[in-house]
Amino acid sequence: MLKIVGVSKTYIAGGGKDRENSLLPTLNNISLSISKGEFVSIIGPSGCGKSTLFNLISGLEQPDQGRILLQDQDIIGEKGHVSYMMQKDLLLPWRTILDNCILGLELRQIAKAEARKKAMQMLQEFNLEKFASSYPPHLSGGMRQRVAFLRTMLADKEILLLDEPFGALDALTKSEMHDWLAQICQKYHPTVLFITHDVEEALFLSDRIYVLSSRPADVKIELKVDFPRPRQRRILVDQQFIKMKKELLEALFA
Ligand SMILES: Nc1ncnc2c1ncn2[C@@H]1O[C@H](COP(=O)(O)OP(=O)(O)OP(=O)(O)O)[C@@H](O)[C@H]1O
Ligand SMILES: [Mg+2]
After folding, report:
1. For a substitution probing ligand 1, which of 9, 10, 11, 53 has the most ligand atoms within 8 Å of its CB?
2. Which atom of ligand 1 is nearest to the CA of 13?
3. How many of the other CB atoms lie within 10 Å of CB of 159?
4. The whole model's pTM is what?
5. Could you confirm whether domain 2-81+159-253 is CATH 3.40.50.2300?
6. Displacement of CA 176 from its chain's centroid (Å)
7. 73-74 and 2-12 strand pairing
8. What are the tens digits of pLDDT across the range 11-49?
9. pLDDT by residue (tens digit) across 56-81?
């Protein structure tokens, strides 16, 4: 469905007098792909260029080289093809949860009443309806991430880009979120590209994992994860799971 082919990106870091010295190669000839309904994780060291990759796919930025194809159509620089949940949840504190959910719909000129109706159905579906008229600062971190995710789903695009959605949560909330997200994926079969630092999280949730090198990032290894679904927490102590975890960590820290 989505193909990234030989994509490279170099930034020019601010402040350097000498342009050559201030070049910041960030992505180095990255190629990866995702099929419809697949859950694919991208793991890589901090600062290696993971969010940059999402900014390129979503059309916010453009690569220096390479192609980005959605169903064989070049989408470089084009916005609106993917739903993007950015690294910060970006809920507007002065809007209720319901009105945060409809932001994307409003931007697409959908009438407010209709947007609210659609969002309310989704809030019910996700068991969040009692928070509809609350404000973001009154919600726990996990709840806010659920709302941000719901808003991303409501954008109703073919691919969801999730940039470390659970990165700031404590371990217990995080594992609750994993079960929650896995259930949603079982039900809706979205196509998800998921950035994380967390190897266990990637193994628990994914069909496939790419490990990126440090900056400038390239693909170090690609791993298929075929544990049956629905997955239970006990797979975390499965021998095969532990073996794959070791393989991922070795690739990450090599
Ligand atoms: N617009 C920009 N201009 C210049 N440099 C940038 C820009 N955006 C990102 N960078 C730099 O590119 C590198 C990669 O950044 P990016 O945010 O993609 O990393 P990341 O892998 O998502 O990191 P993290 O795991 O910490 O979220 C960093 O060194 C960052 O400072
Ligand atoms: Mg990032």
Report:
1. 11
2. 4
3. 20
4. 0.94
5. no
6. 18
7. unpaired
8. 988 755 666 668 999 999 999 999 999 999 999 999 999
9. 999 999 999 999 999 999 999 999 99
